[in-house]
Amino acid sequence: MRYRQLRRSGLRVSELTLGTMGFGGSGRFADVDDIGVTEAQRQLDLSIDATTRSSPATPSTS
User: Fold this and answer.
1) Given a cut of 60, is residue 58 above it in pLDDT?
2) Least CB-packed of 2, 9, 16, 62 within 10 Å?
3) What is the DSSP secondary-structure string of 2-35?
4) Within a domain: residue 23?
5) CA 33, CA 22: separation in Å to the nearest integer?
6) What's phi and psi for 53, nearest 5 deg?
7) Residue-number span of the structural domain to which 42 is assigned
8) Burial of 35 by CB count in 10 Å (0-12 exposed, 13-18 middle, 19+ buried)?
9) Is position 5 within any domain?
10) pLDDT surpasses 80 at 5
Protein backbone atom coordinates (compact mmCIF):
# COMPACT_ATOMS: atom_id res chain seq x y z
CA MET A 1 0.00 0.00 0.00
CA ARG A 2 1.26 3.47 -0.80
CA TYR A 3 1.03 6.41 1.57
CA ARG A 4 1.25 10.17 1.10
CA GLN A 5 2.07 12.91 3.56
CA LEU A 6 -0.91 15.09 4.40
CA ARG A 7 0.54 18.51 3.72
CA ARG A 8 2.54 19.92 6.64
CA SER A 9 0.69 17.94 9.33
CA GLY A 10 3.24 15.13 9.28
CA LEU A 11 0.41 12.59 8.99
CA ARG A 12 0.72 9.85 6.40
CA VAL A 13 -2.48 8.58 4.82
CA SER A 14 -3.07 5.68 2.44
CA GLU A 15 -3.87 6.46 -1.18
CA LEU A 16 -6.82 4.05 -1.16
CA THR A 17 -9.77 4.01 1.20
CA LEU A 18 -13.02 2.11 1.56
CA GLY A 19 -16.01 4.42 1.18
CA THR A 20 -18.67 3.47 3.71
CA MET A 21 -21.21 6.25 3.25
CA GLY A 22 -23.88 3.78 2.18
CA PHE A 23 -23.43 1.47 5.17
CA GLY A 24 -26.49 1.58 7.41
CA GLY A 25 -27.74 4.89 6.10
CA SER A 26 -30.89 6.36 7.55
CA GLY A 27 -32.64 9.69 7.27
CA ARG A 28 -31.09 11.91 4.62
CA PHE A 29 -28.15 9.51 4.26
CA ALA A 30 -30.49 6.73 3.07
CA ASP A 31 -30.76 8.68 -0.20
CA VAL A 32 -27.08 7.91 -0.90
CA ASP A 33 -27.39 4.14 -0.64
CA ASP A 34 -28.79 1.48 1.65
CA ILE A 35 -26.26 -1.33 1.79
CA GLY A 36 -27.43 -4.13 4.06
CA VAL A 37 -25.37 -5.78 6.77
CA THR A 38 -24.50 -8.83 4.64
CA GLU A 39 -23.21 -6.74 1.71
CA ALA A 40 -21.36 -4.35 4.05
CA GLN A 41 -19.62 -7.31 5.73
CA ARG A 42 -18.68 -8.75 2.33
CA GLN A 43 -17.16 -5.43 1.24
CA LEU A 44 -15.22 -5.09 4.50
CA ASP A 45 -13.92 -8.65 4.20
CA LEU A 46 -12.77 -8.01 0.62
CA SER A 47 -11.06 -4.78 1.66
CA ILE A 48 -9.29 -6.40 4.61
CA ASP A 49 -8.21 -9.32 2.45
CA ALA A 50 -6.81 -7.00 -0.25
CA THR A 51 -4.99 -4.86 2.32
CA THR A 52 -3.53 -7.87 4.08
CA ARG A 53 -2.21 -9.31 0.84
CA SER A 54 -0.74 -6.05 -0.51
CA SER A 55 0.60 -4.32 2.61
CA PRO A 56 4.02 -4.80 4.10
CA ALA A 57 4.07 -6.06 7.69
CA THR A 58 5.53 -2.73 8.80
CA PRO A 59 4.55 0.47 6.96
CA SER A 60 7.39 2.26 5.24
CA THR A 61 8.71 5.36 6.97
CA SER A 62 10.32 6.86 3.89
Assistant:
1) no
2) 62
3) -EEE-GGG--EEES-----TTBT--GGGGGT--B
4) yes
5) 5
6) -75, -30
7) 19-54
8) middle
9) no
10) yes
Q: How many domains, the chain?
A: 1
d(CA 56, CA 1): 7
Q: Which long-range contacts (CB under 8 A, 24 or more apart) does 58-61 make?
A: 59/1, 59/3, 59/12, 60/3
Query: How many C-beta atoms surround the C-beta of residue 61 within 10 A?
Result: 6
Nearest to 51 by CA among 23, 24, 15, 11: 15
pLDDT the model gives residue 59: 52
What is the number of other CB atoms lying within 10 angstroms of the CB of residue 44?
13
Measure CA of the first residue to CA of the last residue in the chain; give whole Å.
13
DSSP single-letter state for residue 36: -
Whole-angstrom Cα distance, residue 31 to residue 61?
A: 40
